[in-house]
Write a structure and sequence with these properties.
elongated; three-stranded parallel sheet; alpha/beta; 432 residues
């Protein structure tokens, strides 16, 4: 039986014993309140990984620190500076005076010696500070935190005798209030290929490194309409196009970077055609984000469009909720304007005539507007050439009413309008 299998079985056995209530048969206890449970679990698992010793839990919401516990057990105490457990139980060792004020996100580690035992206080300026203090304590056991994972020291030479808490006195405080990452979408090297697990892993690691922010830079539009390159991180639409639960009723072709999409210098190539065994690293020819399963390289109908947006929303909801539990703020940023004027997009100009009391929308130069119509504003942008899922915008005019109407055509609609209005221009296209 390999060492890793034995270690896994020992971990499982320790968990079973803890669940059964055998918390006293251990080398020490971690006293915590419910808001610091994650910090307590992180200390326990890393101490076990590094030393093989198992620390039990004391629920601080149900149990105070009575004198017998202080005299007979090694304790790791997790608390904020204002917690009564600090201001009362440890007041006699002048801890509060020694620590002083702790700012939000800051922490203080201090070992307290008694005649019969040793205790280690992890005191935070707030709940996040307690978590940062827990990770600072873990680093005292030789653990290093990296974005790609943890570096755990070799445990082959297990500590001899009883486990003893380290002697430490240390304070930590961030230099900047907000610290973190801003990964860019649109590339396979970035979050385009991340799924829920990758997001959770990244936010967990940056929390261990005492960072507290992740912001996603996204591109919600494509300069080439209808190609599916509009990213699903940001959905652009009307409130009426949303369901009550936040899922979408109507959307447009969307995708993240994948192996069958040409963009930013990447050439489309099925992974099955990769050379030198590289094809074995990928389980599908069109490889990309898990939210695109069944819709890769991009969806081909509205149902598929909606599915990709909905899956992206679900993934980010789970990922962001996890991030918040480890003190990481989340943000999604988008570029403005949401519709980017380009060679294929033209402004839709609004003119108004006081004499005729008539509005006139057009993308072309208004020859008759001089001394009759005045430019009001740009109403939006429309496409100058057709593409899949677009509809023509026709300009109709009624000479008798001296009225202009801009409207997309649909079966029967043009014939009804032609009774009073004559279509004289089709120069724009819009996407429904």
């Amino acid at each position: 039986m390999t060492e890793s299998v034995v270690l896994s079985l020992l971990c499982m056995l320790a968990l079973v014993l803890a669940a059964a209530g055998y918390e006293n048969d251990n080398e020490g206890l971690i006293w915590h309140r419910k808001e610091h449970l994650i910090a307590a679990k992180e200390i326990r698992r890393y101490v076990y990984a590094c030393t093989g010793y198992w620390l039990g839990f004391v629920d601080g919401d149900e149990n105070g620190l009575h004198s017998d516990l202080l005299k007979t057990q090694q304790l790791v105490v997790l608390a904020t500076l204002s917690d009564p457990i600090i201001t009362k139980d440890f007041l006699h060792v002048d801890v509060v005076h020694a620590v002083g004020d702790i700012s939000p996100q800051g922490y203080h580690l201090q070992t307290v010696e008694t005649d019969t035992s040793r205790h280690l206080l992890v005191i935070g300026g707030d709940d996040v500070g307690v978590l940062y203090g827990a990770y600072a304590l873990v680093e005292k056991f030789g653990v290093h935190f990296r974005l790609y994972g943890d570096i755990i020291p070799d445990r082959s030479a297990k500590l001899q005798g009883h486990f003893v808490l380290p002697h430490v006195k240390e304070a930590g405080q961030p230099e900047f209030e907000v610290r973190g990452l801003q990964p860019f979408h649109d590339f396979p090297e970035g979050p385009d290929w991340w799924g829920e697990e990758e997001y959770k892993a990244i936010t967990s690691q940056i929390s261990k490194q005492r960072m507290n922010f992740i912001g996603l830079h996204t591109y919600p539009y494509s300069p080439t309409p209808g190609t599916g390159r509009d990213e699903p991180t940001v959905w652009v639409g009307l409130v009426d196009d949303l369901n009550a639960d936040g899922t979408v009723k109507h959307s447009y072709p969307t995708s993240y970077a994948n192996t069958l999409r040409n963009q930013w210098g990447y050439t489309s190539l099925a992974t099955g055609n990769y050379s030198y065994g590289a094809r074995q690293l990928f389980e599908m020819d069109c490889y990309g984000s898990p939210v695109q399963l069944g819709n890769c390289p991009y969806p081909t109908n509205i149902s598929g469009n909606n599915q990709v947006f909905d899956e992206t929303g679900r993934m980010l909801k789970e990922a962001f909720e996890h991030a918040h539990t480890v003190g990481v703020q989340t943000c999604i940023g988008s570029e403005t304007p949401l519709s980017k004027p380009s060679a294929t997009v033209t402004p839709l100009n609004l003119y108004y005539s006081k004499l005729r009391q008539d509005n006139f929308l057009t993308t072309t130069q208004c020859a008759e507007c001089e001394n009759l119509y005045e430019f009001v504003r740009i109403e939006g942008f429309v496409y100058s050439s057709p593409f899949p899922e677009s509809m023509p915008l026709n300009t109709y005019y009624n000479g008798q009413l001296q009225d202009n109407v801009l409207s997309p055509t649909s079966p029967g609609e043009g014939q009804k309008r032609s009774v009073l209005y004559m279509c004289f221009q089709t120069s724009q296209f819009w996407k429904i």
